[in-house]
Amino acid sequence: MVDLVLLASPRGYCAGVERAVETVEKALDLYGTPVYVRKQIVHNLHVVKDLEARGAIFVDEETEVPEGATVVFSAHGVAPSVRENAQLRRLTTIDATCPLVTKVHVQARRYAAEGYTIILIGHAGHEEVVGTMGEAPAAIHIVESAEEVERLPFDQTAKLAYITQTTLSVDETQDIIAALRARYPNIHAPKKGDICYATSNRQWAVKEMLDEVDLLLVIGSRNSSNSNRLVEVARAGGVESYLIDDASEIDETWFDGIRVVGITSGASAPEKLVQQTCDFFRARGVTRIEPYQLMTEDVEFRLPVELRRELELAEAQR
Questions:
Q1: 18 among known catalytic residues
Q2: Which domains does the chain have, with CATH numbers?
């Protein structure tokens, strides 16, 4: 019988997601409907549905956007070829790429320009990785595990540098970096790690609460990399964990013999989903729902410059 629910902190929206979602909302206010969005603006089903209800149209590729229309690039970033296609189609583009992802793109371009072969630590096919690889496709090789490092075709004299996807498991990434450094002692590293503050903080918060909970619910969509990593962190620490899009996916048999349940949410999951999950437990007689080790984040990112400029012009004309 569950008699205590603990809420991880920090959890939920990061600054990059806040910025991306607000970008689409402001674009709809400014331009009216429709505003097109290339890919999911962030990897959360509920966020996408809410924006669709307001008039956003999500497409897989920029080539699906009518010529001359407005399109927002998602928080995960895009390859240069996407920008070129958008220009050819005379699209008004608003770039909602997370600034921390943009930083990785800049590193990739710089390393390639300096003649490095780049090892990208990340998950093949993830939108962020696809965009980053597009910056220097001939120079970038992807690895997903320490085992794959051993299969890289380069000798120790190769001029190598590594970068990483921003939403990886901190522990697994450290293992891969250690393998790279062991095999290639001269590999060049970024001055600062690429895994974003929000991903690191949410994994830290889960680790901190594992000794206090019997089971962890992670609220996030299946295609959310950082949400999946939270499940993995809990399971690696010996605590069963489930990824749910919302409370409707909870299976009550999970709680047989469970006294304390932890709840966290991925960086693209809105807080309302956490509160709905708390309501699920309240409806079943749980009265103790408490925050665990509160930690606050104060990172903020400004809206994309092209959108800020248009908003300022609109304000000036009122």
A1: no
A2: 4-13+197-291 (3.40.1010.20), 15-97+301-316 (3.40.50.11270), 100-183 (3.40.1010.20)
